[in-house]
Design a protein that fits this description.
Layout (H helix, E strand, L loop, with lengths): L1 H34 L3 H15 L5
Helix pairs in contact: 1-2
Keywords: Membrane, Transmembrane, Transmembrane helix
Length: 58
């Protein structure tokens, strides 16, 4: 039984790390979309942000 508990712990830790990484990527792309020096870069960053945050219909 301890092997299952250990596996669940590692799965939860991996899921948490993936969530933090995704949040970090969203934050950086949002910053670039606001602070980029050229309009082309801002547009590209906004497009990327809309792709990352897109919600799928249920």
């Amino acid at each position: 039984m301890s092997e299952i508990a250990q596996l669940l712990y590692y799965a939860a830790a991996l899921s948490g790390c993936a969530g933090l990484l995704y949040t970090g990527v969203l934050f950086v792309v949002a910053l670039v979309s606001v602070l980029a020096p050229t309009p082309e870069r801002r547009k590209d960053a906004r497009t990327t942000l809309t792709i990352l945050v897109r919600r799928r219909p249920r």
